[in-house]
Design brief:
The protein is an alpha+beta fold. It has one domain (about 5-80): BolA-like (GMP Synthetase, Chain A, domain 3), CATH 3.30.300.90. Helices cover about 40% and strands about 25% of the residues. It has helices spanning about 5-15, 40-55, 70-80; strands at about 20-25, 25-35, 65-70. The protein has a three-stranded mixed β-sheet with strand order 1-2-3. This is BolA family transcriptional regulator.
């Protein structure tokens, strides 16, 4: 699997305002910004992303996925220099 393929899988199941994916083909890091994360705890956000990958997490197609998840407001506050 490539980073672009993983990015497409996540964004096809979760409306993302911003997404970055990088990794080595088995171990991945993702930065995901989505309004669907509003009101959700970090574990719930991660579960939502895992749901987009379905069986790929169980079949070792995606061996490890480290995530940083943000709502659009959290992302804007993090990137706003003021």
């Amino acid at each position: 699997m490539t980073a672009d393929e993983l990015k497409t899988l996540i964004s096809s199941g979760l409306k993302c305002d911003h997404i970055e994916v990088q990794g080595d083909g088995r171990h991945w890091e993702a930065l995901i910004v989505s309004a669907e994360f509003d009101g959700k705890r970090p574990i719930q956000r991660h579960q939502r992303v895992y749901a987009t990958l379905g069986a790929r997490m169980q079949t070792d197609e995606v061996h490890a996925l480290s995530m940083k998840t943000f709502t659009p407001a959290e992302w804007a506050a993090r990137t706003d220099p003021n």
